[in-house]
Amino acid sequence: MKKVLFVCVHNAARSQMAEAFLNRLGNGLFIAESAGLEPGSLNPDIVDVMQEIGYDISHNLTKSVFDFYRQGKKYHYVVKVCDQMNGHRCPIFPATLKVINWNHEDPSQYGGDKNERLTQARLLRDEIKHNVEEMVNRELLLSTNFKSLDQGPFEFITSIPKQSAILDIEHLKVVDSMNHTISYGVLDSMFDNPRFKLESYASPAITNWLLFIYAKSMLKAFNLSAFNVSHLMGLLNKVVEYVKFNPIDIGLNLTECIQSFAYDKEFNIKSKFRSVRNDEEINIELWFDFILHTLSEKTALILVGQSSANLVYGIEKTDHSSGYTLFVLNDGKKEKIDLVEWKRSTNNACLMKIVIE
């Protein structure tokens, strides 16, 4: 269970709402507290709008963040619900995994009569609730006990003629608040920090491989019909902590990285890869046979080059072009790439098969 501290200036409104929401909506994943830089009195408008939706915070006390600091309290996450200028005054708690800034306006500055203030307070309340729900969703997949999940079941979207195999990836669908499909698997935009994309562009492909194997069980375990963006952000940003990309030996490097992640999540993997470096010639028939055989076992692969990485979920041998078409996920989109043309565009390539034991 993760411990969370919400901080604002007076602990009178924003942090109190966030604490109440997380403790009720946290799905057993969190325990929350709140405190202020200069503790004041509860904002009566906030008390009223929280009461409207079934949260009674009228008897809550306001607390000092500096008292918590002097008491030696520790938190996994410290969330500054106030503006950044005031947030800089917050002490640095030891052992904190992450400091998060939400930057909500101070309701003590609202003007107008009671009804006008309540209208603004309701908007603030709903924004903070939305932030909390996203926080819970991000933690959901990170809290997964992979050992408890079933793999698959995986299905083909076509009959399997001798020269093709295409796996169904509809369970990787990601939807928005209107239930519209926005991607399949993770997006590059889900990185907390854009530099992570440069450090390990293979992380989205590895995350999609994990999702390919476990997504159906995850959806069932959490009673979800589909994932949203915040569900997947936590998992992607955890994977990138392990996958520090080294282009010198792609296969060995990625195997070691994934092994580290699997070890921490308490499951075992074994991997097999085919790689080609510099100007070596790809034996395209061997690669095709390797891909076709792996997909026929209902296992997706990871295709990695010097500047791109994709989850491979299908292959088809055709009579046109060079004759080898891969079906891949690329930044949330289903795409087709020509295997031979792809090889020509990279000096270092690796095709990884990973099996969870």
What's the gist of this structure?
This protein is an alpha+beta fold and 357 residues long. It is 36% helix and 21% strand.
Can you characterise this structure?
The structure is a single chain. By secondary structure, the chain is α+β, with helices and mostly antiparallel strands. The chain has two domains: 141 residues, Rossmann fold (3-Layer(aba) Sandwich), CATH 3.40.50.2300; 211 residues, Cathepsin B, Chain A, CATH 3.90.70. Helices cover 36% and strands 21% of the residues. The protein is built from eleven helices and 13 strands. Strands 5, 8, 9, 10, 11, 12 and 13 form a seven-stranded antiparallel β-sheet that branches. Strands 2-1-3-4 form a four-stranded parallel β-sheet. Helix 1 packs across helix 5 and helix 5 packs across helix 8. The chain is elongated and about 75 Å long.
* Low-pLDDT ranges: none
E-strand count: 13
The ordered string of helix (H) and strand (E) elements is EHEHHEHEHEEEHHHHEHEEEEHE
Q: What's the CATH class of the largest domain, please?
A: Alpha Beta
Radius of gyration: 24 Å
- CATH fold-level name of the largest domain: Cathepsin B, Chain A
Overall number of structural domains: 2
Query: What percent of residues are in strands?
Result: 15-25%
* Main pleated sheet: 7 strands, antiparallel
CATH structural architecture of the largest domain: Alpha-Beta Complex
Tally of alpha and pi helices? 11
**Terminal CA distance:** 28 Å
Structural class: alpha+beta
Question: Helix content range of the residues, please?
Answer: 25-40%
Average pLDDT metric: 88
**Morphology:** elongated
